[in-house]
Amino acid sequence: MKKLLLLTLSLISVYGLKAQDHYSFSQRSANYVEMTSGTEVSPSEWDDFEVGISLPFAFEYFGVEVDTMFIADDGIFFTDLQADYISPHGEDPIARGAGQSPVTYRVDGTGNKRILKVQWPNISFYSIADSFPNDFVNYQVWFYEGTNVIEFHYGSSFITTGALADLYLTPNMMSLDGLKWINIEGNSPNYMPQYNDLNPNYLSANPPVNTIFVFTPGFPNGVDELVKDEQLSLYPVPAGAELNIESSLPMQKIHVYNAAGQKLSTHEVSGNKAEIVTDMLPAGVYFLEIHTTEGVINRKFSK
Question: What is the pLDDT of residues 128-182, one digit of tens each?
């Protein structure tokens, strides 16, 4: 199974994030609609390929505006260095035969509500094509104009050999606050996101037909963007049995969220210093929504 070898270079930032630098994860179900028309970008019979296209509308990926997309056999990139990567299926895909797996894209919608759709139909995998010639998957990635939402859509599949799927989003590796990525783990229907995990778990089976994974820019649970960029420090890093918070603005209330956007606790505080007990939290990434006398500050911390 293919993995991101450069994940070990990650730095998990505890500094302020803007909402558009983060994605919250959700899932829904809707009928998978195969695209029967569009611009074909793959060769007739392919293993590895990469084709660059100009985006038809303004789009931001991890808060960075991009104007070019590289559609490849195994996912989508926004730089030709393949540093930022969208993988709707982590195994190494190949065509099932000449003309049998045409990778295409098209734009649907009008005005400022268009959707760019990329489709990988009837895909097999390099590692199993000879041994399991009947295995296949179908999937699409959708990009929404205006909202910058990204969706993975999964169609029919037949997988003899198990999961063969690791699904992730990662932004440009050269981002100033370190590498960030999202990996999906779990079983249907209880999928969960992992954020910046050095040792992620992968899916135990291919997503069922009509499954849609939704990645929405912003902090979990509708947490607002940073209102006041004031001095705020968290320690120790990573958090241990407790997390200490010091702010230049008087604090009033602190909410703690997990990476899935679930509120775990609320703490009534006062003054410029606070301590939150974190010994019961499992290792992972969490978010603070800190209400001060002058606005809300959002911070990420790890344990």
Answer: 666 778 888 899 999 999 999 999 999 998 887 655 556 666 654 333 344 567 7
Alpha-carbon distance of 75 to 15, in angstroms, equals 30
Please, what are the domains in the chain?
Answer: 5-218 (no CATH), 223-302 (2.60.40.3080)
Structure tokens at 205: 């089976």
14 vs 27: CA distance, rounded Å: 27
How many CB atoms are located within 10 Å of the residue 84 CB? 23
**Radius of gyration (C-alpha) of the chain in whole angstroms:** 21
d(CA 39, CA 58): 20
Beta partners for residue 171, in sequence order: none
User: How far apart, in whole angstroms, are the C-alpha atoms of residue 64 and residue 170?
Assistant: 12
Asked if residue 231 lies in contact with residue 222, where contact means CB atoms within 8 angstroms, the answer is no
